[in-house]
Amino acid sequence: MRIVVENVRKQFIDTNKREITALKDINFTIAAQEFVVLVGPSGCGKSTLLNIVGGLLSPSSGEVSFEGLQGNKEPKLAIVFQEIALFPWRTVYENVIFGLEEQGASKEEQQEKGRHYIEMVGLTGFESAYPKQLSGGMRQRAGIARALAVEPDLLLMDEPFSALDAQTRTIMQEELLAIWNRTRLSTLYVTHNIEEAVYLADRVIVMSRRPGEIKNIIRIDLPKIGRNQEEYRLVFERYVDEIWQLIRHDAQEALKEGD
Amino acid sequence: MRIVVENVRKQFIDTNKREITALKDINFTIAAQEFVVLVGPSGCGKSTLLNIVGGLLSPSSGEVSFEGLQGNKEPKLAIVFQEIALFPWRTVYENVIFGLEEQGASKEEQQEKGRHYIEMVGLTGFESAYPKQLSGGMRQRAGIARALAVEPDLLLMDEPFSALDAQTRTIMQEELLAIWNRTRLSTLYVTHNIEEAVYLADRVIVMSRRPGEIKNIIRIDLPKIGRNQEEYRLVFERYVDEIWQLIRHDAQEALKEGD
Amino acid sequence: GKSAEKQGNSAEPANPSEPANTKPAESKSVSLALLKFTSNAPLFIAYEKGFFKDEHLDVELKWFDSANAVNVAVASSSVDIAAAGLTADFYNMIAQGQKMFLVADKGREEKGYAYSALVLPNDSPYKSVEELKGKKAAITTIGSTNHYSIARILENHGMSSKDVQWTPMNSVSGVVDAIKGKRVDFGFISEPNVTKAVDEGFGKTLTWISDEIKFQSSALVFSSKFISDRDASVRFLKAYLKGLRYYYDAALTKKDGKLAQGPNFDEVLKIITKYTGQPEDVIKKSFPFIDRNGKPDIDDLKEQIAWYAKEKLIVKTLEVDDFVDTTLLDEALKAAGN
Amino acid sequence: MEQGSTNVNIVSRTVQPQRQTIRNRVAFLEKRTPVYASVLGVLGILTLWEGLARIQVIPPLFLPSPSAILAAGWQMVTTGEVTDNILTSLMRIGTGYAIGAVAGIVIGLLLGFFRWVDSVLTPVIYSIYPIPKIALLPLFILWLGIGELPKFTIIALGVFFPVVINTYAGVKQVDPILLKAAVTFGSKYFSVIRKVILPAALPTIFAGLKLAAGNSLLLLVSAEMIAAEKGVGSMILHYGNLMMTTNLMVGVLILSMLGLLFNRSLEWLERKLLPWK
Amino acid sequence: MEQGSTNVNIVSRTVQPQRQTIRNRVAFLEKRTPVYASVLGVLGILTLWEGLARIQVIPPLFLPSPSAILAAGWQMVTTGEVTDNILTSLMRIGTGYAIGAVAGIVIGLLLGFFRWVDSVLTPVIYSIYPIPKIALLPLFILWLGIGELPKFTIIALGVFFPVVINTYAGVKQVDPILLKAAVTFGSKYFSVIRKVILPAALPTIFAGLKLAAGNSLLLLVSAEMIAAEKGVGSMILHYGNLMMTTNLMVGVLILSMLGLLFNRSLEWLERKLLPWK
Ligand SMILES: Nc1ncnc2c1ncn2[C@@H]1O[C@H](COP(=O)(O)OP(=O)(O)OP(=O)(O)O)[C@@H](O)[C@H]1O
Ligand SMILES: Nc1ncnc2c1ncn2[C@@H]1O[C@H](COP(=O)(O)OP(=O)(O)OP(=O)(O)O)[C@@H](O)[C@H]1O
Ligand SMILES: [Mg+2]
Ligand SMILES: [Mg+2]
């Protein structure tokens, strides 16, 4: 199985009625069990692309398709947003089983999988808490459990940790990697943080802005686990630098623009 | 001149009417032209301490004082918050000169200093923009210009860049350092980000939580400019690691707590 | 007297084609809209003394606060019968196609029977109607009986309706308060409020309306729905007439040109007191005039219509034949005799 | 620079006035007033009022004293007049409120869900909204007669508009990210409505219901202008007509208390229904 | 894993049904209705109404046709009746609104700034707020006579409450971080009020002013129940009393349009005064 993004292009009409090209000539694939990270400066179209892949936005041209899905069934998707997109009126448990409910899973399956994934993200004991009673980090864990619970064909994550403080973020990155290692889901992950990209990715897609194009696709040739160890530090830093050099100018430009 | 923090202790009454000790036995000094960074896990009392130093909160016991201020005048303070604390109804220029206005500076002085510091943070051309018309990074630059414009005896910054995206943050850190080099203000800076602390600080004060105490004060023996260069990378990483090891356990604990 | 009346009723030969008259009429429920005014005395009496019951009418009294609402209620057939004020809204609703029928007199200004008056604040210097020119007049609303009476009086004194400053207070109590508080120069007040104003000393009468003009001010009005039941309509009028005569004989008979207490006077007084909530000695001072046979003053109705049309207070002029039906009354009178 | 600071330091140690303690400059933001202050205000005004009434500066007709109002109120309670009127009014408010609220929520949801309904009906609703109901009293009688129907209608209209507008706004304000999340997890149209839009709009709907509670009391007086023999509103009108101001004030007092009660009940219900807020 | 994906790839290339394109599943969120839809609704209702009136299903007294209303309106405009009444009412609304708004803002600010005033007066204000002004009409006449004063007062009261409550809320909701910033930069008490609290509260105050605009029109009819010869409200009452429903509807129409106008003017003013919003 793989996900193919072909010739995707997206134009928006901005508030001044001008047409702006957010994405242009986007072509890449995500293989089974591959972790692909999108990085790029603010406004380069990362979220737009992720939304198109997730079926939440139509491309102006081009298409996104799943190839070789077993039994020709509908591809299952799951998404984790930066903003806490948990349902505030549902408890942690009810949030986690939301996708299962919608797929018509039996009560037993819901309970079993719910319990399993809540445990996996370390939220056991918080099943009946409402989102507002949780810290930011715990909310995002619940969001991840909700996504994992549907056992998706493709997991989409849009800057899941960018609202967290630096230390919590570091811890969550480690945890995500551990979880991913157990589930090995095909993943498309968006981030601003280059270290995070290098730490998590099998391949990093670096994007440029105005229009958003793929600047480069960099395969990270490091073992998936333990990239933060002393021995890989230099290679790690080299990847980070390489990507930062690709982005730096665009990022400075982005900073100069109003909201 | 130096700022002396002596035996500061702070207790709060929480919503369940229990007394919680946010700060305990806090003792340190900030020398003239020194850049001191406070790091620690969420909820360890960093903001509480910064507010006490800034005269925005009374300590339960202990005191904060300025020693050796010239002419026995009132110490001048300036503060930069994480949240965009610009006045939304004032343009960039009006925001920047706010402190000067309040100190009764003449119109000419206001104009001159306003222009100077707006240029210093790279906002020339945006003088008459309202904050909502600016990007996050530019807003924070305006916040910094507003603080610099009063030429304070002590500059306070509470996670000024934590709401910015990773790339913008990197750029802003570099710029802050450049600006600080020109002004050399005594600074107390709060952050969650250990790399940021090591990158900016003369001394890093590491705090623990429950109750918030000083765990260690680490002097960063690296040249103030160019710490991100290849040659210092190993020493830099060692500082980061040292601090992370001091904080890690507390940070994991903090993550488990509800909001 | 009761049983005699009943016999007379059942033996009534006037309308043999009506089957309801031959077999004992089944009880019909009828709703009656009215205000707590003394001029509704015949209705109070008929109700209290069971005259309606005798006619197999199950009358339900619907109390209202405003004359306008009474008229609207009967116009829209929300009630069957109304003790209506003949005001501009009454004519307007008819002019705009609403069907309802004026069937009998229920109160008018008749010389020698003091009921409504122009009242001045007690310290007012004015002595004549002529002096009221340009002054402030408290009335309930434009197009009300208040407004009409004052304007007609002014006209009789060589002025027009433009010669005073109309001050609509939107309620009877508002008019009384305006005079009491000396906020206006004069106002239109009916009994028992005239007596009260004089007794409490805040007001004095300049002239009684009945001394100045004739005015058919209120009437019994049937809704188009109710009048289609001709039998019940006639029966209602019979009971009404009985109440009316009971009232007339007790309160409105004159001896030597002066009002004298007739038979059953105390009983009538008690009934009125009960239904209006006013004290007896206030009620006692004045009783509004109603024709003993309930005959409405058709000529005055024509005059009213002409006047309202002239003042542009009704959308178009109308013919009395469109809304006055005295045939029912005639039938009832025939049965009741004199 | 270390030198510079050390110099100053020495000076300060010897001369001492050079030491300046930092004081909390926003302490004024945290100042509290004692709890009794709020009672004080109400009590003070009542006392002043009573006093003025007692020494007859203001004639009792103009402003009856609080004690006279209470006495009249107590007397009206013992004769059963008050209970009777309150029950009648509560029935009217209850029915009118229920009709208005249900209609408001249903139509608000339709406006929110179906774009065509929205485009067609929203302008109509917004142009009818600002019409004062009291101006239409004669028409209400024409249309609906003089029974309970026009009274229910007037109250229901006063309730309908804030509820429909808030429901609509609530549906429209649902965070699109929640909708996107639900759709991604496989929710279909009606599931999105039931599981996301409805619960997300509930707090705003409640705000509308609370506004409407106030309106329903305001309109009670207007409603009971139509041929009402009983009810707090008609009681107020009755005593107003008779210029019995003390009894009038009793009615006003009852209305205020009903308003308070109504509001509290809705708040209680909100806490029960929205534990996640 | 690279292998696995290549395998599948080959299969899909040859068999082809294995390829599934992702479609936008939230497209329904973006569906638009044509611009004419909103005009359609209003026009549709007007046409239906006119039609019903023309075929006389509903008697014209009950529901005058739109064309009749327009004709009557035009006629009333040409006789000068409308202009006269509008001017009188505008004067009343203007004066009442100005008094109520100024008093509301001033007292709201006092409540917000001074904790003692807050503790003492806020409960008083909140308990007077829900009293229907119409219930107090007889008292207003007693207290203030039948001239312009009671009319101004009723409108002013209707304006005062939303403004005072919003002003108070606006002051209380000022982000403390802005206060802290100002104090740090050396602002003293009055400077904080003038330069931070006031501008920060302005948007909320404006919301109150807009609410109040609606209220002032609602209360115009009540106010003009008191001995008013002129004014849109008294015109409505007048035609209601005469049961000239067509002319009554003209009055109602004028009120709606005044409401619209008032709202638009305030929005325009808001944009001018708060360019930073
Ligand atoms: N609905 C929309 N209408 C108009 N323009 C849009 C819309 N959504 C996005 N854009 C524009 O498209 C471009 C890409 O936006 P997008 O949100 O995908 O960027 P991003 O890379 O996710 O940025 P960030 O890192 O800030 O999240 C931006 O210039 C943005 O202004
Ligand atoms: N006004 C207050 N009332 C009660 N408790 C408070 C108050 N302010 C802070 N606290 C508590 O004091 C402790 C320290 O809070 P503080 O905001 O200083 O931490 P922090 O280190 O700045 O955290 P963060 O990194 O999340 O900003 C926390 O446990 C917090 O809950
Ligand atoms: Mg994005
Ligand atoms: Mg903090």
TrEMBL record, chains A, B:
It comes from the Bacteria. InterPro entries: AAA+_ATPase (IPR003593), ABC_transporter-like_ATP-bd (IPR003439), ABC_transporter-like_CS (IPR017871), ABC_transporter_ATP-bind (IPR050166), P-loop_NTPase (IPR027417). Keywords: ATP-binding, Nucleotide-binding, Transport. GO terms for molecular function: ATP binding; ATP hydrolysis activity. PANTHER family: ALIPHATIC SULFONATES IMPORT ATP-BINDING PROTEIN SSUB, TAURINE IMPORT ATP-BINDING PROTEIN-RELATED. This is ABC transporter ATP-binding protein. It comes from Paenibacillus naphthalenovorans.
From TrEMBL, chains D, E:
It is found in: Cell membrane. Signal peptide: none annotated. Gene3D superfamilies: MetI-like. The keyword Nucleus does not apply. One of its GO terms (biological process) is alkanesulfonate transmembrane transport. It is a multi-pass membrane protein. Its main location: membrane. The chain crosses the membrane at residues 35-53, 97-117, 124-146, 152-171, 196-222, 242-262. It comes from the Bacteria. Keywords: Cell membrane, Membrane, Transmembrane, Transmembrane helix, Transport. InterPro entries: MetI-like, MetI-like_sf. CDD domains: TM_PBP2. GO terms for cellular component: plasma membrane. Belongs to the binding-protein-dependent transport system permease family. PANTHER family: ALIPHATIC SULFONATES TRANSPORT PERMEASE PROTEIN SSUC-RELATED (PTHR30151:SF38), ALKANE SULFONATE ABC TRANSPORTER-RELATED, MEMBRANE SUBUNIT (PTHR30151). This is Nitrate ABC transporter permease.
